[in-house]
């Protein structure tokens, strides 16, 4: 039981710290909703997509993020990807996304060469199938 409480505390700490990063960095939208991927024109972005300026991800660029319609700038989930074409993994932060928007973003990362899973903020989609 003690381990479960500790785990919940760490999850809460993770989301709080991630929210702090989102709040303290400007979001740069370099791929607006409806635009196509620069190298893969068949991939259309269902939401605004960009990065957090002044941050660093595994690829050396800013932390990638999808921007949803919820006005509160709060992390709602994280997409974890594995790409066999590029032989890499990445994290995509979901900021202010509804469940439908998170699903649309997730679908974008599920291709022949890429697999993706969604980590939801605790309780966000409780009761949805």
Helix content estimate: 10-25%
Question: Tell me, what is the CATH class?
Answer: Alpha Beta
Shape: globular
- Provide the CATH topology: Inorganic Pyrophosphatase
**Biggest sheet strand line-up:** 1-2-3-5-4-6
Radius of gyration: 15 Å
Order of H and E elements? HEEEEEHE
Corresponding CATH superfamily: Inorganic pyrophosphatase
User: Helical stretch count?
Assistant: 2
Number of strands: 6
- Amount of beta strand: 25-35%
The CA-CA distance between the termini, in Å, is 28 Å
Q: How many domain modules?
A: 1
Key structural traits:
6 strands; 129 residues; alpha+beta; 2 helices; Inorganic Pyrophosphatase; disordered C terminus; single chain; 30% strand; six-stranded mixed sheet
Please tell me about this protein's structure:
The protein has 2 helices and 6 strands. With 129 residues, the chain is an alpha+beta fold. It has one domain (2-120): Inorganic pyrophosphatase (Inorganic Pyrophosphatase, Alpha-Beta Complex), CATH 3.90.80.10. The protein has a 6-stranded mixed beta sheet. The longest helix is centred in the first third of the chain and has 22 residues, at 2-23. The two termini are 28 Å apart.
């Amino acid at each position: 039981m003690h381990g479960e409480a500790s785990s919940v505390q760490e999850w809460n700490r993770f989301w709080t710290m991630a929210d702090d990063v989102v709040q303290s960095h400007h979001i740069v939208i370099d791929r607006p909703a409806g635009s196509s991927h620069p190298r893969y024109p068949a991939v259309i972005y269902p939401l605004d997509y960009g990065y957090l300026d002044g941050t660093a991800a595994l690829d050396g660029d800013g932390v990638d993020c999808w921007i949803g319609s919820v006005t509160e700038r709060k992390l709602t989930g994280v997409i974890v990807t594995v790409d066999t074409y590029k032989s890499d993994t990445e994290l995509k932060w979901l900021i202010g996304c509804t469940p439908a928007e998170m699903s649309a973003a997730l679908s974008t990362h599920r291709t022949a060469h890429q697999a993706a899973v969604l980590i939801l903020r605790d309780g966000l989609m409780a009761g949805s199938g």
